[in-house]
Design brief:
With about 210 residues, this protein is mainly alpha-helical. It is built from eleven helices and no strands.
């Protein structure tokens, strides 16, 4: 009995140390992958991730089931890091121009922050149901923000027109539209924001045709 319990106090610190080391190494790998994404390397090799993290390539998958598992962990970490950027600093009872300005500011800051990881998400979503589910939920949240914030403007329209305007606003204020303006059209952040602002203003202030 004595021999069975004597080693227990010493085993616990050792186990805690292993867990801490594992957590530290796992986090280093995730941060390394995020850093590589931020550099524009959207599909880094195992060796590149290992070199950036300081964890040996052979050890990487002690912490993750496979590359997809590592990618999902990196996406989850970034979602946690940018959660504060999902909040729009406006309320439904404020003037339309104030709400439009708040949405444009929020979307620009959010989309610039998530640019590379969001691109990876869209590339992987068709092949990874978990990633696809997260993308669908995030899109729903952003669309819901517009519906709630501009509820008074939409209520002044017929249901059919309101639904059409909301759908168009959702596209105009989307990640995809923002980066079409920024990357494909080469607009500065200020000019891209002006395009989004003008579009949302037209959608939410133009009277319904009767």
């Amino acid at each position: 009995m004595a021999n069975g319990t004597a080693g227990a106090p010493n085993d616990e610190p050792a186990a805690d140390g292993r867990r801490l080391r594992r957590d530290r190494n796992r986090d280093a790998v995730v941060q390394a992958l995020l850093a590589l994404y931020a550099d524009g390397n959207l599909e880094p090799s195992t060796d590149e991730i290992a070199a950036r993290s300081g964890v040996s390539a052979r050890s990487l998958f002690r912490y993750f089931d496979d590359v997809d598992d590592l990618c999902r962990a990196a996406i989850a970490q970034q979602q946690h890091d940018v959660a504060h950027l999902f909040k729009v600093a406006a309320t439904a009872d404020q003037p339309t121009e104030v709400k439009v300005a708040a949405v444009v500011r929020q979307r620009g800051e959010l989309f610039d922050a998530i640019h590379h990881v969001a691109t990876v998400v869209r590339l992987r979503a068709p092949f990874q149901p978990i990633v696809h589910g997260n993308l669908t939920r995030n899109r729903s949240v952003l669309r819901g923000q517009l519906a709630e914030l501009f509820a008074p403007e939409l209520a002044a329209l017929s249901p059919t027109v309101a639904a059409s305007r909301l759908a168009a606003a959702d596209i105009a204020a989307s990640f995809e539209s923002w980066w079409l303006l920024r990357d494909d059209q080469g607009l500065s952040r200020t000019k891209a924001a002006a395009v989004m602002s003008n579009t949302l203003t037209l959608l939410f202030t133009t009277p319904e045709d009767r």
